[in-house]
Design a protein that fits this description.
Rossmann fold; 2 domains; eight-stranded antiparallel sheet; globular; 9 helices; alpha+beta
């Protein structure tokens, strides 16, 4: 299995005005674990990073529309200041060269009046997200340089010679400059940071019902990474077994969860498949259609976290769903091992899973709470740092 040192590791996150996140800033670790009860806003933390990726992909307005539009996505909490409401996102990235990159984007309504009325003005629909500001900067330690800056429909980039250039095409109000970027040779920093964000993988849709992608036929195509819906799981296993010929960690993960069981991955032809042999029935292979929801979900998580090529950042939202409590410790070990090859972000309801991770690693799970109707993280100071004396579980 490959080990890819991440040149742009997510270092901190700032979110304001998004759903229950009125204003919050916090550091991000190699393995970040957020645990809390229903309704505290854990998923909003997770989705805020999805929106950052959407900005890099040029689909931010679409993602917000899919959530119900700006009126739905705006924070229900009291606004930070007078003036038009907005959703603001900032991610900071640390590099091995001692520099920090910061990407920031703010979106609001297409138009807004202090009296509360709204009307469509310009090339944006009434409830469509409109980019209000956007920038990418680099802090070298000696000085801070703006590599990208959005001003209305115009975007300015700083090239390899340090010259500030205007982007050729006028941007529509709903288009991000980062998502419209197309010139890696002259703006390599922008290119690689955008590639890093686009490489992030989010796993929140690993359905296990009979109509799910996990239970459908899988084409036999070399697959070093699990798809977001898990639809290429059989191909991921086949890649490890028949192409990489490296299954030690996968075999151990299955033994850890289902003692005595064996994963069977036939040589693929047009499609790839897999099944499990359980010790109680040593002559019978249980196919994917016969596996229980919990067993199949654990196998999908193993595929996500043990795949040959892990993305530089992997986010898991409530992976414990459908899993028996006995699988929390094996899952914790999977997550910890994956954090040695990738940066892992975990949102969970399960105190058992969070505790298992803490006991087996240096990670410090953070408890997400509601404070005056707003999502907050226990032990987080207003300065954006954690007071670790208050975070013991």
């Amino acid at each position: 299995m490959t080990t890819d040192e991440n040149p742009y590791q997510l270092n901190s996150v700032y979110v304001a005005g998004y759903r229950s996140l009125r204003q919050i800033s916090f550091p991000v670790d190699r393995l970040s674990v957020f645990v809390g009860a229903n309704g505290t806003g854990k998923t909003n933390l997770y989705r805020a990073l999805l929106l950052v990726q959407a900005a890099a992909a040029g689909t931010l307005a679409y993602e917000l529309a899919a959530e119900g539009g700006m009126a739905s996505a705006m924070s229900a909490a009291k606004r930070l200041a007078k003036g038009p409401p907005a959703i603001s996102l900032r991610t900071d990235f640390a590099t091995g060269r001692g520099m920090t990159y910061s990407y920031e984007v703010s979106v609001g309504f297409a138009s807004f009046t202090q009296g509360g009325g709204r009307q469509r003005i310009g090339a944006a629909f009434l409830d469509e997200a409109q980019i209000k500001s956007e920038s990418l900067s680099i802090d070298t330690g000696a000085r801070k340089v703006r590599l990208l800056e959005r001003q209305g429909g115009a975007a300015f980039f700083r090239n390899t010679e340090g010259v500030r250039e205007m982007m050729g095409d006028q941007l529509m109000p709903s288009e991000t400059a980062l998502g419209s970027f197309e010139d890696p040779s002259r703006f390599p920093d922008l290119y690689w940071l955008r590639r890093t964000i686009l490489d992030w993988r989010f796993y929140h849709n690993l359905r296990t019902d009979q109509a799910s992608a996990l239970r459908q036929p899988c084409l036999a195509v070399t697959s070093p990474t699990l798809a977001a819906d898990g639809g290429n799981l059989a191909a991921v296993f086949a890649t490890l077994v028949h192409i990489r010929e490296d299954t030690d960690m996968l075999d151990q993960a299955i033994e850890d969860a289902f003692p005595g069981a064996k994963l069977v991955v036939p040589e693929p032809d047009r499609t790839a498949s897999f099944g499990l042999i359980f010790p109680e029935y040593p002559q019978r292979i249980f196919t994917v259609s016969e596996l229980s929801d919990g067993t199949l979900r654990y196998l999908a998580l193993a595929g996500a976290l043990l795949s040959y090529r892990l993305p530089r950042f992997v986010a898991l939202n409530e992976p414990e769903t459908s899993l028996h409590p006995s699988l929390m410790e094996p899952l914790a070990r999977l997550i910890i091992d994956a954090s040695k090859r990738s940066q892992i972000w975990l949102v969970t309801h399960s105190e058992q899973l969070a505790t298992a991770i803490r006991e087996q690693s240096d990670a410090r799970p953070r408890t997400v709470i509601k404070r005056n109707g707003e999502t907050w993280i226990d032990g987080l100071k207003l300065s954006g740092a954690f007071d670790d004396d208050d975070t013991d579980m």
